[in-house]
């Protein structure tokens, strides 16, 4: 801890936490190095690919460019927060069933964006899904399966409501 670090406090996946952070540290770095949460990954390092997507106060952010100091006083959710009491989130389950990943590197970002989409629009059209996920990149090309997974999760979420 240096003399220039700042203490931030926030709610992480439902639990109050605090960390000393440097002004140059990103939220992704802090989540991985201080809290051992490795689901979100850095790929491009420029906020262009979506692999590092986490949610801050309900909104998806690119963790690789989001200043950690901005998380002070917020509620942060990572992919690790979706599984509840041993049950996968419907989006996670649909991704598995549809084979919506190959290498898996981008999967957590797609799942987090898909979850946000379905929280805001439980019945999106295919075009709306494609538009919403346009900021997430999959190098393996699993896009058709990702669309199918989001559609399956949407049907299940609507059916449970």
UniProtKB/TrEMBL annotation:
Any idea where the 2Fe-2S ferredoxin-type domain is? 6-82
* UniProt cross-references to CDD domains, sorted A to Z: fer2 (cd00207)
Q: Does the keyword Iron apply?
A: yes
| Annotated keywords | 2Fe-2S, Iron, Iron-sulfur, Metal-binding
Q: Which residues cross the membrane?
A: none
Task: Identify the InterPro entries for this entry.
Answer: 2Fe-2S-bd (IPR002888), 2Fe-2S-bd_dom_sf (IPR036884), 2Fe-2S_ferredoxin-like_sf (IPR036010), 2Fe-2S_ferredoxin-type (IPR001041), Beta-grasp_dom_sf (IPR012675), Diverse_Oxidoreductases (IPR051452)
Pfam families the record matches: Fer2 (PF00111), Fer2_2 (PF01799)
Q: Which domain of life does this protein belong to?
A: Bacteria
GO MF term (any one): metal ion binding
> What span is annotated as the signal peptide, if there is one?
none
Q: Does the keyword Iron apply?
A: yes
Q: Any idea what this protein is called?
A: Ferredoxin
The scientific name of the source species is: Bordetella genomosp. 13
């Amino acid at each position: 801890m240096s003399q220039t670090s700042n203490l931030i406090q926030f709610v992480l996946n439902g639990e109050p936490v605090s960390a000393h952070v440097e002004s140059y540290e990103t939220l992704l770095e802090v989540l991985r190095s201080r809290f051992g949460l490795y689901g979100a990954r850095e790929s491009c390092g420029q906020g262009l690919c979506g692999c590092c997507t986490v949610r801050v106060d309900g909104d998806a952010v690119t963790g690789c460019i989001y200043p950690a100091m901005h998380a002070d006083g917020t509620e942060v959710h990572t992919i690790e927060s979706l599984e509840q009491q041993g049950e996968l989130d419907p989006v996670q389950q649909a991704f598995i069933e549809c084979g919506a990943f190959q290498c898996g590197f981008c999967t957590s970002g797609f799942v987090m964006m898909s979850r946000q989409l379905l929280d805001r629009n439980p019945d999106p059209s295919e075009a709306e899904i494609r538009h919403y996920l346009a900021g997430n990149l999959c190098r393996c090309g699993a896009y058709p399966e990702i669309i199918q997974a989001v559609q399956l999760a949407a049907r299940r979420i609507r059916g449970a409501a």
